[in-house]
Design goal:
Order of helices and strands: EEEEEEEEEE
Oligomer: single chain
Low-confidence stretches: none
Helix content: under 10%
Structural class: mainly beta
Strand order of the largest sheet: 1-2-10-4-8
Mean pLDDT: 90
Number of helices: 0
Number of strands: 10
Radius of gyration: 14 Å
Shape: globular
């Protein structure tokens, strides 16, 4: 299976909050396509699925080519090896963000990136 991406406006639909969903990921899929949404200030990521010994890493880049592991609010690398505590805030605000699966036998992985604008849109 390959990654599928959807983008949804959430909340009161004024454009101030957005949910990016990467779904259907498996170990063989590796890196998902990156999304370019630098205007969003507050980001948190939620992981679901069968991790099966894999590592799911959230990466960022400012040039779209060279990706680095992002960090969570506790100062650790934004990597998931289990579904325990699989909801984390992202510290950095890079131009591009993507999930990557390595190792193990992960299947049915869903990565949900919730974003909110620093200055809400006015309707």
């Amino acid at each position: 299976m390959t990654w599928a991406i959807t983008t949804d406006h959430v909340g009161d639909k004024d454009g101030s909050a957005r949910l990016i969903s990467w779904t259907g990921g498996a170990t063989a899929d590796g890196a998902a396509p990156a999304v370019e949404l630098p205007e969003w200030a507050d980001n948190c990521v939620h992981i679901i699925g069968t991790i099966g010994g894999a590592t799911i890493t959230i990466e960022g880049s400012n040039d779209g080519t060279n990706f680095l592991t992002l960090n969570n609010a506790q100062g650790g690398a934004l990597q998931f090896t289990s579904l325990a505590a699989a909801l984390k805030q992202i510290v950095e605000r890079p131009r591009y963000i993507r999930p990557v699966i390595t190792g193990g036998t992960a299947t049915g992985i869903g990565v949900y990136l919730m974003m909110r604008r620093a200055n809400p849109m006015r309707t």
